[in-house]
Design a protein that fits this description.
Two copies of one chain form a homodimer. The first copy, chain A, has 656 residues and is an alpha+beta fold. Chain A is built from 17 helices and 25 strands. Chains A and B meet through helix 12, helix 15, strand 14 and strand 21 of A and helix 12, helix 15, strand 14 and strand 21 of B.
Chain lengths: 656, 656
């Protein structure tokens, strides 16, 4: 079986025309990507400089003395040690946007960026400005903390995306050379460093490169990074010793599990450590498991996914409960107010879910993918595309964010840009590449994982088939899918995902009710498909109150409101302050309205509720009395849209 | 009106013979005080050295080269900058214990300590080992952070206690000289430093000295410290500038309010900053307000007390919600798990309450005093007197204390001793001086604030009167009080506190029911009292479920169990893990048992309850369903006695 066949449809074969997502994608294309290019070039007035492109220019000048980008040669490296990755993410996002919206201006900026980047590349292929500027003798001496292989991984993603979007090989070839350089220094052979990335991403990025090159060495290096990780003697421990025993996590219970390196990855069955690193690693593990058929590795992936989705994931798809180490913490620990929930971690979870789907089309993976996309990922960006959350709390209290040290990482308003600007370009790259997440072909079956307006084409049974999806999802549960098989009917199975949140639905094929078998969350329709065949799905989309497992201490006595895949919240703008005094009324007593002019168009939910009245005395404690409640209609808005109307309180979980 | 008349009965005039408190006091006397003396002298095997007495010996040797305590002269100062205060607190506690239990051995140790301390005193009266050892030229240059005036204050308390207990003046005279030295350098006059203590206590300690010396300069210095504090130009700000602008709180919302110095004290109406410092200051403010009749100052004290008791105090009497700065946070912010609740802060709150009672006998002050004593103070010490809590959480989770950085200050087991050993000797000094908190005479009225077995004598209406109290409080609500007026009947008002927790009670005088007027929480009986007069109070002591004000977000949907003044908790030892899955059953469905052999004798409460069953699937979220509950009797023990049976979960607030 050619496992590479299982990949999603190419982004080039899908056009998204969706009333929900297209505006997001346009916002990314017209606002975020141009703004980021200015930021990378230190041209945003008032913003702290990024230094990112300046670093590349300086590195190029130092490498090729004949070059002159105007950067004084005695300037140092600026920004974070991983500053290079910012432009890599930008290239990747920009390349995706070119796929669905050609833009010669942007293509020119990309060429310009790539020319500068490539002119900094060393003779042997090496390409990391931090070490080119600070001394190449020190390169590969701190894999654990200095993000060299992290930047490498992001550039691999950028190179692959740029090549796939434009057919241009310049960056791809540069990265193939850089991969050779790394392969020469790191690996299992004697004389090489037996190291691996401190911050993972290169694993999945190498698999992507392998998808293009089919060069077994590229798969091999990814596999090596995964196999070596956490093996005794621990490379990071030895590296730490060589570097003077400076180990940031020595007083932490996490130790090397901060890096998912405390034990071999196949023995890691509980998600631990830095959340973004964790899900990036797991994504790479899933890729390698898929390509190699490594059963132990697959089992670890399954266990890790189950651990996250079943024990460590917020209802919004956010992960990483702890600001300390930006990390996962422990099972069922899900504080809503002090959560980290980094936007990048939710994005990484979507990567992981997508890769698990590529291995086996199971609804549980698509459910998590959908949950992150409609909630914990897009909550990271303001509706005007100009400001971003790094941290995505499920409960916000302005006074606490100001005065409570436990919540100093929790911002009440999105920020323009970060010194560590990982999240904004990460949102840009996942939203711009959304087309790659919608459908996949798996051994002759076409699966639809996400419902959004699009036209996609694919080849099956030797025929070209296209399908057009029309829907007002996530606000409405009706989805119309029309097939076109221009070169004649094609025999194949079509797998429609029945969303995990959906309790009842109807399916019609050419206006006749059908009840196909549902397997692993997908309704399977095996037939000969001809032009004009039309499926109509109606997923009932009532308002649902959701409770959390009794093991979760933070949500006792509370419920969250969901409708379809969308998690809702209460905001101060609609409901006043002290949201914790509110209670949900009788389930069922609600109304649903789509508000075109609110928050770029959202469906809001009004729910009967009550508010605890003030006591007649202002004592702090009193003998338990019947609660004095006053009626108070509760107005819920989609969680992703919170914090777009000035600072204020917010909560997802509401007393019941 | 001689305001000094309003002070409590002298400890010498009361003998405590109480089934609840006497064992605590004996434990302090026989275990804590001797252990601390060993610790202060670095003679506890395995414990980190205190350096406290060694510092004094070294300071003495440097001052008087003829002395030889055997400390090498090139040894530096050891321990914290405020290490001196440890022996001061020990002297104070030991002196109190001598009052109620003469002990020649202990008296000898005290003399030895005082001889060493006094031999370190400088010609001009100065007495702080940190600066004597490190360079006297630097003294008084960092009042804000170096605790010089804090140690001074603790020594004033020690000196007064030692003088009152033994009649010996050596330490008292040394401290009078030290006071003169400070008065020479600090004060309103030109050429003096316009400073005040960074960590308060000297204010109330100077008032105590004034009570002995009647020297107006001593009252004046206390008043100066209070009047100058927070005035512009801010002394601490200028000192910070002189010291190179190193200001630890520059990024904090607290700024100089960490030290209660952000504005003049009379304008401080909300309790803020470091909790221990805050209540120590407020205690001194109350003392000065009482003695000077300063109305603005009194109003500030009343506002601050009301703010704490009405908006920032845990049900246990703990204060200081935030580990960051060991500080108060903001109104109604009362997290149970990440609370700081330093034992010393609860003790300081008791000091403050006692002083407010001295100004005006109001039940609200005595209620807080009683609450701290039976809950948040004695929770700081293990029942064997050998281990101590610095932090007193209302909810404990072993896994969180290990893995959750927000709770790294929350220990699950009491510790033997601390590098910063403030809490153990502070418990010792308040418990040893409990006699001073029980009754007070206020302009001809004798008030009883606390109910515990004791015999007290006092002079009123020119007659000597004594009263004997017999009770099994706090386990039983009956209190018998017998008067003896050996030199003939005495006419006065007796004020009995009706505890705030008490909803119904009966009073009998000589076996006849009476219903005297109750004013400000005290039942007032005005009559001619003769020998054999006997009051019997029966305070009904049902189990009460308590809820917290709707403004408190942390306790929504929960209740705490109290009986009398005692706050109860659930512990893992009795109730298993995941205490947050438990729910209180029908109020009223409980039984109360006194267990002689459990936890040194406690009354336990069994309450009908339920436990949420596991779900049939292990998903993290599901549509809200009827809860599947199983019956589960809940066993409550007194909060103060938790963590005496190994590590485990604990919670005060329980779902209802």
């Amino acid at each position: 079986m050619d496992r590479l066949n299982q990949i999603p449809l190419s982004m080039k074969d899908i056009a998204i025309t969706d009333s929900f997502w297209s505006p997001f994608m346009e916002r990314i294309r017209t606002k975020v990507i141009p703004y980021q290019w200015e930021a990378l070039n230190d041209r945003v007035p008032g913003a702290e400089p990024s230094y990112c492109m300046r670093n590349f220019k300086l590195a190029a000048e130092l490498t090729h003395p004949e070059l002159n980008y105007g950067v004084p040669r005695d300037t140092g490296h600026g920004g974070m040690v991983f500053q290079d990755s910012d432009v890599a993410k930008w290239i990747e996002a920009a390349a995706y946007s070119l796929v669905w919206s050609p833009d010669p201006e942007l293509e020119k900026s990309l060429d310009e960026a790539i020319d500068i980047i490539c002119s900094a590349q060393q003779e042997d292929g090496y390409l990391d400005t931090f070490y080119i500027i600070n001394g190449l003798d020190k390169r590969f001496t701190n894999l654990k903390d200095n993000h060299e292989l992290y930047c490498f991984g992001h550039f691999l993603e950028a190179a692959a995306a740029h090549y796939e979007a434009t057919g241009k090989r310049k960056l791809l070839d540069a990265l193939i050379r850089y991969t050779e350089c790394i392969d020469k220094h790191i690996g299992p052979e004697e004389g090489k460093l037996h190291g691996y990335p401190g911050h993972e991403i290169a694993e999945m990025a190498l698999i992507r490169l392998y998808g293009i090159t089919k060069n077994e060495k590229h798969l091999g290096l990814a596999k090596y990074f995964i196999d070596e990780r956490g093996k005794a003697p621990l490379y990071f421990e030895e590296e730490t010793k060589r570097n003077g025993n400076d180990f940031h996590w020595k007083d932490s219970y996490m130790q090397y599990q901060y890096y998912q390196a405390g034990k071999p990855v196949r023995e890691q069955l509980v998600a631990e450590g830095h959340a973004v690193r964790a899900v990036y690693l797991y994504s790479g593990m899933a890729d390698v498991a898929r390509l190699t058929g490594d059963k132990k590795l697959l089992e670890a992936c399954e266990a890790l996914f189950a651990n996250i989705a079943g024990k460590q994931m917020y209802i919004t798809g956010a992960i990483g409960q702890s600001a300390y180490g930006e990390a996962l913490s422990y099972d069922y620990d899900l504080p809503n107010d002090t959560v980290y929930g980094e936007t990048c971690a939710a994005i990484g979870l979507a990567f992981f879910a997508r890769r698990m789907l590529e291995i086996a089309p199971k609804g549980m993976y698509a459910d998590v993918l959908e949950k992150t996309l409609y909630n914990g990922i897009i909550s990271g960006m303001s509706l005007d595309g100009r400001a971003f959350f790094y941290v995505n709390p499920l409960e916000a209290l302005p006074e606490a964010s100001l005065k409570d040290r436990r919540m100093r990482h929790v911002k009440i308003e999105r920020q323009r840009w970060f010194v560590c600007a990982c999240c904004p370009p990460n949102i840009a790259r996942i939203v711009s590449s959304l087309g790659g997440y919608v459908h996949s072909l798996n051994t002759g079956t076409l699966y639809t994982h996400l419902y959004l307006g699009n036209e996609a084409k694919f080849t099956v049974d030797g025929k070209e088939v296209s399908l057009k999806t029309e829907t007002r999802y996530p606000w409405e549960g009706r989805v119309d899918i029309t097939f076109t098989a221009a070169s004649g009917a094609a025999f194949f199975t079509y797998g429609l995902r029945i969303p995990g949140w959906c309790r009842s639905y109807t399916l019609e094929l050419n206006e006749e009710k059908i009840a196909p078998a549902v397997q692993n969350g997908y309704a399977l329709l095996k037939r000969s498909w001809k032009s004009g065949d039309r499926i109509t799905c109606v997923f009932d989309m009532p308002v649902v109150l959701v409770e959390s497992n009794p093991h979760v201490r933070e949500n006792r006595g509370k419920a969250a409101v969901m409708r379809g895949p969308v998690v809702y919240c209460l905001e101060e703008a609609d409901n006043g302050t002290e949201l914790y005094r509110l209670r949900l009324g009788t389930p069922g007593a609600y109304s649903v309205t789509h508000e075109r002019d609110l928050l770029e168009g959202v469906t809001v939910i009004s729910f009967a509720g009550t508010r605890e009245k003030d006591w007649s005395t202002d004592v702090l404690y009193r003998p338990l009395d019947k609660p004095a409640l006053e009626d108070k209609p509760l107005c819920f808005i989609p969680y992703y849209a919170w914090a777009n109307r000035g600072p204020g309180e917010m909560t997802v979980w509401v007393n019941r």
